[in-house]
Amino acid sequence: MKKLHISKIFSNLGVKINKLFNLVMCTLYTKFVNFLEICKHFSKDLVTDAGNVRRRGPVPRFSDLEVIALGMAAEAEEIDSENWLFEAKLKECRHLIPNLISRRQFNNRRKSVCNLQEQIRSRMANRIDGGEDYFCIDSKPIEVCRVARGKRCKMGRYGNFSVAPDFGY
Prior knowledge:
The chain is 53% helix and 0% strand. It has helices at 2-42, 64-76, 82-92, 103-112, 114-128.
C-alpha cells in the first residue's frame, strides 16, 4: 500500500514538473509575442504589412520583425547561444511558431536586418524619454581583469564598496 502511495506522489509530482516546465518554456514564446507587438508598433513606416523590409524576390513566411522579436526575446531570457536557443529552448514551443526558420537562416536574416533592429531600438529609447542622449539598457557586469591579476589591479580599490561589483568585475 505504501509503495502505491509513493508512486502516486511521484506521478503527481511528474505531472506538476511537466506543467511547470511547459510554463517556463512558454515564457520565451510569451516574450516573443510581446516583442513582436512592440516591434510592429515602432516600425510602422519601415516595413511592409507582412513585417518585412521592402526588397525584391519572394516574401519570407517568417517575417523580419519576427526575426528581430525572437532575437530580443532570446536576449531577454539571457540566452547567449543560438545553438541552445534552437536545439533546447525552441524545440518544445516549435508548434506555437508555425513558420520558424532554421538556425542558419535566423543567423543570416538577423545580420541582414540589424539596421532595422537598431532603428526600432532607437525609436523605443526615444519613446522612453526623449531628453536623454544615452541609455544603459543592459546591466551585465564587465570583467575588467582576470582573477589571476585581481590582487594587482588598482581599478575599483577606492570608493564606495557597498555599490562596487564583485571581485574582478
